[in-house]
Amino acid sequence: MKWIDPHIHMVSRTTDDYERMAVAGCAAVTEPAFWAGFDRAHASHFRDYFLQIAECEQKRAALFGIRHFCWLCLNPKEAEDPELGRQVVELIPELLSLPSVLGIGEIGLNKNSKNEVRVLERHIALAADHDQLILVHTPHLEDKLKGTRLIMDALKNEPRIRPGRVIIDHAEEHTVGLILDQGFWAGLTLYPNSKCTPQRAVDIFEMYGPERIWINSAADWGNSDPLAVPRTLGEMKRRGHPEAVIQKLGFENPAAFLGQSGKFTI
Predict the structure, then answer these.
(1) What is the SS3 assignment for 149?
(2) Predicted local distance difference test score (pLDDT) of residue 261
(3) DSSP string computed for 178-212
(4) pLDDT for 138-147, tens place per residue?
(5) What is the tens place of the pLDDT at every residue in 229-248?
(6) What is the largest CA-CA distance in the chain?
(7) Domains of the chain by range and CATH?
(8) Which CA distances in Å does 7 have to 14, 22, 45, 69, 196?
(9) Cα separation of 240 and 128, whole Å?
(10) 251 DSSP assignment
């Protein structure tokens, strides 16, 4: 079965991971800009990183027959410096025309601070100015509900943003309903400890149904699994879900959302 991992950080994964994913049926990945494990000091560092995920990773994935796309932003973990945020956001417009760039992401909040909200609002305005898709990072653990509400408020305050072109990721049992009720897409992240297990993700899917939901691994340099998507599809099969429903969650839903960019093709 073909599948898509619409949120994975392949710069932090080995070439062996690409090979394993290809053998397991991966057709495409999309890579949001994220924290490098340390705070970068200058905007020029981000430009080099953006080109790495927009060009170099695309070539590495192609060696295994996997399509690679990306998203650009200043990640929320580095958004406490509003001036750096301004400089990085100003770099992005010239790169939006690159064929692998699908939109702005993963933007959002980390600690729900005022500075993070300011940088988030800059990103939202940028997406609206250039009619870009948005991929959102929600805070972890106890800050998730408050952060999700703050993010949705910021999105709704920009009248040019259409909810159906926004995916709010790292959703969990207590936030999925809020996200879907506002017309946004919800992402279920299959990441040990701080997010969903495959079993929990299938439970949520069974509660809310197949519309406007995708699953992703968000695999990075932490304790994570680049095969989390097919493992979750296997859990659905074990529970007796029809092949058509499994294919919808693992392939058709992400392809439908990402296809709105006009660049996403498989």
Answers:
(1) helix
(2) 97
(3) HHHHTT-EEEEE--TTTS--HHHHHHHHHHH-STT
(4) 998 778 999 9
(5) 999 999 999 999 999 999 99
(6) 52
(7) 3-261 (3.20.20.140)
(8) 16, 16, 22, 10, 14
(9) 42
(10) I
